[in-house]
Amino acid sequence: NRVVRLNAICQYVECEFALGNVERVRELVREMDEHLLTAGEAVNAMPVIEASRIYYYMMISDDEGIESQLPSYLDKLHTVDNPIDYAQDITDLCYELIKCEKYRYVKQIIDAVFESLVSCSLPAVAMSILELCIAYYEAIGDEKSLSETKKIYYRATIEKREKDKLRMRSSLEFYESIINIKLQRNQAMRDNMRLQMESNTDALTGLPNRRMLNSVAESSFDKAFLEQSLLGFEILDIDFFKQLNDANGHRYGDFCLRSIADILRRIAEGDERIFTARYGGDEFCIIYMNMTDEEIKRVALKIREEVKSLKVLSEASDVSEFMTVSQGIRNSIPAMRNRTWDFMFAADTALYRVKNRQKGEILLIHTYKDSDDEWFSAVES
């Protein structure tokens, strides 16, 4: 904390120096000296301490003051572990000394740090000290030294440019590798999504398959049980599908299945409470979440009428000249003793009753018991 505080004070001194606030700089230097009274060796070894005092003495044109600080400043520059850390502070101070025409002090500072900074591994630091030397030699009119320094600066510029090219090439390669990794990751995500979709989608109809149905059925049952809301299961199948398939071929049968699937897909897309899936063969399943009997009946009737409106010929049917579907539905609030398969079994049983009594109709029940009296009558057309 003491090092951070002193560094902040020294930077503040430079700011106030630039603004020409002599009194404020004097106060800051006094504050710095107070901190140094209880500071350890590591803090006292910081060359910015003398630099701050030099700034103050420049403001009051006290050459003796500058002279008094310079030996200690130069000693610290010689002994500091890493002069690169102070490169910016050094050049800033020297430029201000040049403005004040304190050239001999600049020469002593340059001599102290030139070799270490020019030969460092950072081209930008090396060029900054060379730029300072050029400014210094221009100020004192030393043409020979100026020419030699410019040559060194030119070589340093070429070296820096080559290093920048290598660094840029390395950065581009790194960037390209990151882009490739992202592209590969995105492709893997798309592949995973496609595989997941394929594993959950019926290939023929494009509807969710039995696997997806089981997952949605379980989560819907759990939600309805926790919220004590209505849950409806419907199973429907195509009447006389085997005869229709045998008479017209499997391609015709596939066409019928896809046509039913398109109707169910449109209905599910229009209401987030409805989920549709292919149950197997010519059977489809619909889950109704928190819908009343009347709401479910309206949807079931819509499905039946849209199937009829397809006007797909079904010569073997004794119900209609066109393809029809039979629908069995259970709708109730799940109880502790219920399971998902209870709803599926009841809906399947309701469908079986429809098939035995009158194909092409709809039967909605609330519960399944041994007595036939518990069954609701078919929905009116």
What's the topology here?
Layout: H1 2-19, H2 22-36, H3 41-44, H4 48-59, H5 63-79, H6 87-99, H7 103-118, H8 123-140, H9 143-200, H10 210-227, E1 231-238, H11 241-248, H12 250-269, E2 274-280, E3 283-289, H13 293-309, E4 325-332, H14 340-357, E5 362-365
Parallel strand pairs: 4-5
Antiparallel strand pairs: 1-3, 1-4, 2-3
Structural key phrases:
elongated, alpha+beta, disordered C terminus, five-stranded mixed sheet, 14 helices, 381 residues
Structural summary, described in words:
The chain contains 14 helices and 5 strands. Strands 2-3-1-4-5 form a 5-stranded mixed beta sheet, with helices on both faces. The chain has helices at residues 2-19, 22-36, 41-44, 48-59, 63-79, 87-99, 103-118, 123-140, 143-200, 210-227, 241-248, 250-269, 293-309, 340-357, and strands spanning 231-238, 274-280, 283-289, 325-332, 362-365. The longest helix has 58 residues, at 143-200.
Strand line-up in the sheet with most strands: 2-3-1-4-5
Secondary-structure element sequence? HHHHHHHHHHEHHEEHEHE
- Decide which structural class fits the backbone: alpha+beta
Average of per-residue pLDDT values: 87
Number of strands: 5
Q: What Rg is obtained from the alpha carbons, in whole angstroms? A: 44 Å
In percent, how helical is the residue content?
Answer: 55-70%
Low-confidence stretches: 370-381
Could you give a short account of the major beta sheet?
5 strands, mixed
